[in-house]
Amino acid sequence: MDTKITIAIDGFSSTGKSTLAKQLAAALGYVYVDSGAMYRAVALFAMQNGYIDQDFLDKETLIASLPFIHLQFKFNPDIGFAEMYLNETNVEQEIRTIQVSNFVSKVAEISEVRAKLVEQQQQMGKDKGVVMDGRDIATVVFPDAELKIFMTASAQTRAQRRFEELCQKGDVVSFEEVLKNVVERDYIDTHRADSPLAKANNAIEIDNSHLSREEQFEKVLALVSQLK
């Protein structure tokens, strides 16, 4: 029997972390955890309850509400991966909008939010056999992960990918708006005081600006094979 390992994938927004993680989890029979979806769900909760807007963030009230935020992944056999549920409601579509993207990094800056979600993420991966992607998986959540990947690509490339993805979903958005969001999220993610986005010392960096999804998958799968 193959030894199960922990695969931690970090990187900038819209680098295809989730796509790669889903591919690996499916190929290996591992559990896939989209940590970004968890932060998006908290951001959606804050939006729904009026705790955050373009001009303000009621940080203290959001922190006080954390015990009432129940997050859960439920596997959907029709699509082949688990979807995000917020307080028993499927919010997989709602959390992927540009509106949530505009607020998620601000919510993720809050130390109390990060502490709550990191604890849950560590519990999800305690038995190994997990692929998790996010911003601080290799540095904070699973510093002892057997395989650490750090994904990057130019802001223009990532914005174009995100723009096309949103347009395919029917969202009305401009490329300039998406690019602005990508650049702003990069800055917040790399400059926040608590667990900023950074490449772990022993992580393998992959710039996928010019890699297809399949090329990227095969490259990382080969790295997994060397460890199993």
Low-confidence stretches: none
Radius of gyration (Å): 17 Å
Strand order of the largest sheet: 2-6-1-7-8
Q: Termini distance?
A: 10 Å
Which structural class is indicated by helix and strand composition?
alpha/beta
- The count of strands amounts to 8
Mean pLDDT: 94
Quickly count the helices.
9
Shape: globular
The major beta sheet can be summarized as: 5 strands, parallel
Strand content: 15-25%
Residues in helices, as a percent range? 40-55%
Task: Please provide the ordered H/E string of secondary-structure elements.
Answer: EHEHHEEEHHEHEHHEH
What are the salient characteristics of this protein?
5-stranded parallel β-sheet; 228 residues; 48% helix; alpha/beta; 3-stranded antiparallel β-sheet; single chain; globular
Helices and strands in order:
Elements: E1 6-11, H1 17-28, E2 31-34, H2 35-48, H3 59-65, E3 71-76, E4 81-86, E5 89-90, H4 98-108, H5 111-124, E6 130-134, H6 137-141, E7 147-152, H7 155-168, H8 175-191, E8 204-207, H9 213-227
Parallel strand pairs: 1-6, 1-7, 2-6, 7-8
Antiparallel strand pairs: 3-4, 4-5
Helix pairs in contact: 1-9, 2-4, 2-5, 4-8, 7-8
